[in-house]
């Protein structure tokens, strides 16, 4: 009986201990974190909501921030630079806590970004930066992007031959900085001749027209470097219609949506698509915003970058799970 009583008393003590400790220890950060996000407003200014990139980023922002009590508002300029500038100006008057902005080029929003942060609005630039720095940039290291694409094309051409480059908007970060990476690689490969370097303005029909002309002038072309997979559907179509799919190595880049990325590589239309995974970028965006708000960061206190991991997608890995994502996801 004495041993039984001791066992019962010991068990009761052990059961009571966690409850006693729970009352004595308070989680020190939770309440402040919840309060720092609840009721805040994050505005999203994409290039256009018609893009898979914007859809993916917004989906991530909503799933990560709305459950924390953050209000998400969207201003869609639908590829109009003028409408984007007007929307940005209107947001300055509305004074959201954070503006996530996808710059159309390196200059258009520069003064507005500076003005917003001067008014106390945190600016997070996504994927294409302005010349004006802000509290945070989340997106691609475009110099690295250009270097990866160029090296793949150089290798495919055996170190010598003619290549063409199809840029987007020449004043966009994704064009200007990608060219820096390409030029760095080509500087060490004198056997590669760039026979065409033109802008298609992110439009697939222009990319197709440019590539058709280049192929007529240079039927011995060995490679094309394109700057966006949605645009480069036109590039791939021109190569295919010329019957040169086996000869011309087509390299592009994009956000990793299955149809535009992995499916096009699997079909042979693209030989390389360097993917910056949009769901991961969206998660990085949301995490950056959570940190900035919970830490009480004010505009001007910091300026940082979070570069996205790049995945070269070829026929070897295009079918692997998790390399690309779908709109349904």
UniProtKB/TrEMBL annotation:
Coiled coil: none
PANTHER family found in the cross-reference section: D-ALLOSE-BINDING PERIPLASMIC PROTEIN-RELATED
Keyword Signal attributed: yes
Alphabetized InterPro entries for the sequence: Peripla_BP_I (IPR028082), SBP_2_dom (IPR025997)
Domain of life: Bacteria
Taxonomic lineage: Bacteria, Pseudomonadati, Pseudomonadota, Alphaproteobacteria, Rhodobacterales
A single Gene Ontology CC term: cell envelope
Segments passing through the bilayer: none
Recorded GO MF terms: carbohydrate binding
Alphabetized UniProt keyword annotations: Signal
Protein name in the entry: Sugar ABC transporter substrate-binding protein
Gene3D superfamilies tied to this protein: 3.40.50.2300
């Amino acid at each position: 009986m004495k041993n039984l009583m001791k066992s019962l008393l010991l068990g009761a003590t052990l059961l009571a201990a966690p409850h006693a400790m729970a009352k004595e220890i308070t989680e020190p950060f939770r309440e402040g974190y919840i309060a720092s996000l609840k009721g805040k407003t994050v505005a999203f200014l994409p290039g256009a909501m018609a893009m898979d990139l914007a859809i993916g980023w917004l989906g991530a922002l909503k799933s990560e921030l709305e459950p924390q009590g953050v209000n998400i508002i969207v201003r869609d300029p639908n590829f109009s630079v003028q409408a984007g500038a007007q929307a940005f100006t209107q947001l300055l008057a509305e004074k959201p806590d954070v503006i996530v902005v996808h710059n159309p080029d390196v200059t258009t929003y520069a003064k507005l970004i500076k003005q917003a942060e001067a008014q106390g609005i945190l600016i997070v630039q996504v994927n294409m930066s302005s010349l004006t720095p802000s509290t945070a940039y989340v997106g691609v290291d475009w110099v690295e992007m250009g270097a990866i694409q160029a090296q793949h094309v150089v290798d495919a051409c055996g170190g010598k031959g003619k290549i063409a480059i199809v840029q987007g908007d020449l004043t966009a970060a994704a064009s200007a900085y990608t060219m820096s990476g390409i030029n760095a690689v080509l500087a060490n490969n004198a056997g590669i001749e760039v026979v065409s370097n033109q802008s298609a303005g992110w439009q697939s029909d222009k990319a197709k027209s440019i590539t058709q002309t280049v192929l007529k002038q240079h039927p011995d072309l060995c490679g094309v470097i394109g700057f966006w997979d949605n645009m480069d559907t036109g590039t791939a179509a021109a190569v295919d219609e010329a019957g040169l799919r086996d000869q011309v190595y087509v390299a592009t880049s994009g956000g990793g949506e299955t149809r535009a990325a992995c499916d096009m590589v699997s079909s042979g239309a693209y030989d390389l698509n360097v993917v910056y995974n949009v769901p991961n970028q969206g998660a990085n965006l949301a995490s950056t915003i959570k940190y900035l708000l919970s830490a009480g960061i004010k505009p001007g206190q910091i300026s940082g970058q979070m570069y996205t991991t790049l995945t070269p997608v070829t026929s070897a890995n295009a079918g692997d799970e998790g390399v690309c994502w779908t709109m349904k996801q």
